[in-house]
Amino acid sequence: MKKFLFLAASVCAMSYIQPVFAEDKAAPVTPINVEHYTFDKAHTQILFFVDHLGFSKSQGEFLDFDGFFNFDLEHPEKSNVDVSINVSGLDMDDDKWNTHMKSADLFDIEKFPTMTFKSTAIEVTGKKTANITGDFTLLGVTKPVVLAVTHNKSDKHAFSGGKYVSGFSATTTIKRSEFGMQYGLPMVGDDVEIRIEVEGLRSEAEAAPESE
């Protein structure tokens, strides 16, 4: 009888203790300090370089773009980026060249007016460096692209009324043929070197919107 009472008491005790531990496991973790940024377009450049018949690396720039990034300084792997580029804003510093680049031979802006990049994963590679993998869409084709990114600085801007800014440099290389851009190959280069210089303005709320 004593053994039975002891066993019953033990079961009751366990039934009380287990929910307490289960509740502890389900307790929410401390929220990460994610900050929301929009692009300072005057100080953000999206550049590309392509071999031109072996003579030089021709350079172009996209001047019309929009998007945001969410940045966690303490946990960069929790950050994310979303960019949309209006291809009609392409500038090659020459009107005739601009017209051809936007034609069906190359960017075909009538059918594909925008390019996009949406991050899917971030791998921290150093104290101020990371690889950002994302889905890049060009000419209606979406493929993963990895940006090698350096965090340059996050601080109050000395000449903008104390606005808080985060700055980054990023590079990658893609093959345009993989996105269906075949014009000029192989005389004009297939490899496209992309260089991005970013300054982002932190939102006053200093918090990121919820991701879908």
The span between the termini is 59 Å
The biggest beta sheet, please? 8 strands, antiparallel, barrel
Count of alpha/pi helices: 2
Ranges with pLDDT <50 over ≥5 residues?
Answer: 1-31, 207-212
What is the CATH superfamily?
Lipid/polyisoprenoid-binding, YceI-like
Assess the beta-strand content as a share of residues: over 45%
- What would the CATH topology be? Lipocalin
DSSP E strands, number: 11
The general outline is globular
| Spatial sequence of strands, sheet with the most strands | 1-4-5-7-8-9-10-11
Give the helix proportion (percent range): 10-25%
Provide the residue-averaged pLDDT: 86
Radius of gyration: 25 Å
Look at the structure and give the CATH class.
Mainly Beta
Using the 3D structure, state the CATH architecture.
Beta Barrel
- Domain module tally: 1
| N-to-C SSE string, H for helix and E for strand | HEEEEEEHEEEEE
User: Structural class, please?
Assistant: mainly beta
